[in-house]
Amino acid sequence: MNPFAFTQPKDIDGVLAQLAEGARPIAGGTNLLDLMKEGVMQPPQVVDINAIACAGLDGIEEADGGLRLGALARNADTAYHPLVRDRYPLLSSAILAGASPQLRNMATNGGNLLQRTRCVYFYDVGVPCNKREPGTGCPAKHGINRQLAILGTSEQCIATHPSDMCVALRALDAVVHVRSSSGEREIPFGEFHRLPGERPELDTTLQPGELITHIALPDAARFVAHSAYIKVRERLSYAFALVSVAAALDLDGGTIRAARIALGGVAHKPWRVEEAERELEGKQADEAAFALAAERILQGARGWGQNDFKLPLAKNAIVQALQTAVRGTAYARGERE
Ligand SMILES: Cc1cc2nc3c(=O)[nH]c(=O)nc-3n(C[C@H](O)[C@H](O)[C@H](O)COP(=O)(O)OP(=O)(O)OC[C@H]3O[C@@H](n4cnc5c(N)ncnc54)[C@H](O)[C@@H]3O)c2cc1C
Ligand code: SF4
Known about the structure:
By secondary structure, the protein is an alpha+beta fold. Helix content is 29%, strand content 19%. Keywords: FAD, Flavoprotein.
């Protein structure tokens, strides 16, 4: 590992001053430390932001009719929080589908949003990779791409964003709140992660010097009774999604009033096609309508060889997630303690 400077400011201004100087924040460290040990990221300056948790950054509280999730709240604390379990069961299920209990105890909400791709070439400093070293090439296009994207790819990069939590946050219209030494701003979740395009080295629209302070969730009461997170992976735990689907329905009997559908494991960002959701409105909540929505969401999808199987898999997973949502959440069925 390369030598680096390390600071632990006690207040948020101290952290922001470090970030303005180019320091890299560390929260749970479950991704950043791995990347540093492998030599994939070599920040000369690291700022530990855990000491500022007490400044409200680790809280989960009601706000503006919805919820405010602190950036330093741990993934496990978020998933098991009564307000999240009762009002956002989709988010709770998505978080609990990720990683392992030990990792979720350590990982933070802010860090989860900024975890990096799991493309094997990105982690191997001995081979080219446009995301790690722009302009060197993308061996994944004709190489090991079983885990990689089928939507929104570019000539430069076909990586996926690996988070489960982010797929639910996208479906729930979350907003990311950030702060820097020059002020605060809000980023709608759909604009937070980006497609690779010509700049695959950039995962998000977060600017240098910006700290995620919290994630805001709008009220989602109408989706509480009918939501589901389906994750298809190589084994039942401790594996990243091949394809995942966060689905939520607002139903009037058997008729769809509103739908939310986001996919993970298929693109450089959580994938959502709002037009497909609008087309479901007023339709019967049945397999035929769900299959049409799946076709719409997957329009333009293409495989790269090893990941061709994701095309039918994603379609089936969308239909299955929506059918599971129709059957209702455990909470809605009265099965929650
Ligand atoms: C073996 C393994 C299996 C995993 N499986 C899954 C899985 O199935 N599903 C899944 O979703 N995830 C999975 N993960 C990833 C895990 O969820 C992430 O590593 C974790 O969420 C990152 O959070 P952290 O707090 O540890 O981030 P860190 O490692 O501390 O930081 C990650 C990045 O975020 C930046 N950062 C952190 N906090 C902030 C902030 N507040 N503002 C600005 N920048 C910030 C850091 O600078 C860094 O670039 C797995 C990880 C491992 C190691
Ligand atoms: S898909 Fe992206 S991360 Fe993977 S090798 Fe290509 S450029 Fe690198």
